[in-house]
Amino acid sequence: MPPPDSAELRHGLADLLAQDGVLKTAAWRKAVEEVPREQFLPSFFRDEPGPDGVPRYVPVTRAADAAEWLALVYRNETWVTQLDGHVTAETADGPVSGFPTSSSTMPATVVGMSEALDVEDGMKVLEIGTGTGYSTGLLCHRLGADNVASVEVDPEVAKRADDALEALGYSTWTVTGDGLLGHPRRAPYDRTVATCALRRIPYAWVRQTRPGGVILATVGPSAWSYGTGLVKLTVKDDGTAEGRVIARTSFMPARAQAAVPLSGDLAARAAYADTERETALSPDLLREWMPAFLAQLAAPGSQLVRATSSGRETVYLFDTGREAFAALTADGDRWNVRQGGPVAIWDAIEYAVSAWQEADEPDITAVRLTVTPEAHVYWIAEHPALRWQHPHPPLSA
Known about the structure:
Blueprint: H1 6-19, H2 26-34, E1 43-49, E2 55-61, H3 66-73, E3 79-83, E4 100-104, H4 107-116, E5 125-128, H5 134-143, E6 148-152, H6 155-167, E7 173-176, E8 189-198, H7 203-208, E9 209-219, E10 229-235, E11 241-248, H8 266-269, E12 275-279, H9 289-298, E13 303-309, E14 312-319, E15 324-331, E16 334-340, H10 345-358, E17 367-371, E18 375-380, E19 387-391
Parallel strand pairs: 5-6, 5-8, 6-7, 8-9
Antiparallel strand pairs: 1-2, 3-4, 9-10, 10-11, 11-17, 12-16, 13-14, 14-15, 15-16, 17-18, 18-19
Helix pairs in contact: 1-2, 2-5, 9-10
C-alpha cells in the first residue's frame, strides 16, 4: 500500500493549525502547505512508557513502515531526533533509553512563533537552533533563503539540516557554532528567533538586532524543563530591549546554558542546615506553570529535584554555584523546610509566590522583561513585590 500523499497531509496540517487559531496569515499558510516536513524527518523516535516508568524511545524510519512514518510526521507533535548527543533512530536497533538532545518541535509551536515574529517581505532573520531545519525551511519559503541565517551548535545536526534544506533548493546561511554568540557577519537583523530555552537573552543578540527589531525566545532563569515563557522583545535606540511574555512554551535548553544533572548523595548536599521551620507553601505548587516560573525568577540558577526514600518524598532545591539548598519534607498536611548556604532559596520563592497570590495570581503573560547590557529586569506592573533584577555574570578578573 503506498504511503499517504504528502501534499494532502500538508494541507490537512494547515487546516488544523488554522482551526486552532495558530495559523493566521496567507503567507505562512502557503509555507506550511508547500514545505514538506518529511524532508527534515527521515527518522525519529516516538516515546512510550517503560516498565520502570522511564520513557523508552522507539525508532521510526521510512524504511521500516513508510505509511506509518509519514502519518506520524504530520501529526501536530514534537518528535525526538537525537538522544544523549549522538543516538539517532538510524543508529538504534530497537527501543532505547536516553536524554533527548534534539527534536522537531510540534508544528503548532513552530508556526505560532513564526506568526508572532510579524515579518514583512525583505526582512532578515537570525534563527538560533536550526534543529532538523523545518522551521528554517518555513522561514526560507516566506522570506527567501538569502534573508535567513541559522546557527546550530551540533555539527551532525547542522549537517543533516543543511542537506535537507539544500535538497529543497534553500541555499541559506546555515552556520555551525554557538548560537549564543549570534552571527555578527550577517547583522543587523530585523528579527531574531530562538528554538531553544535560555536562562538569559544574550546581549549579543540585542546588538545584532536593529532598533525596532524583534527578539523572540523562551526564557527560564533556572533552565527547568517547564515553567518557561516565550518573550517578545523590541530593541530600542538606547541599546536595550523591552517586551513581555506572550505565551507559555517549552524547548530544550541551549547547550551552553543547560544545567548539569545532579548526581551522588543528595542528602549529603543538604547535610548542614542553618535554619529549619514550617512553611505554609507546599512545594507541590511548583508543579504548576506560573509558580514554577516565579520560583525561577526568585531563585535563578536553582535546580529542583524530587527524591523518595523509604516511601517519603523530599523536594530539594539546590544552587550549586553558591552551595545553597532548601530541603522540604511533608509532616502530615504540613511541610517543613531546612535551608543552608549564603542564600535562603525557599524564603525567596515563598515570598514571590505569596506576593503573586496576593496580586490575584496574574497569568504569565503579565510578566514584562527589559534586557540591558548590565542585567535582565523582570516585573509585573503595579506590583512592586513582583520585580526581579538579575545582573549579568561578571567578567573574570
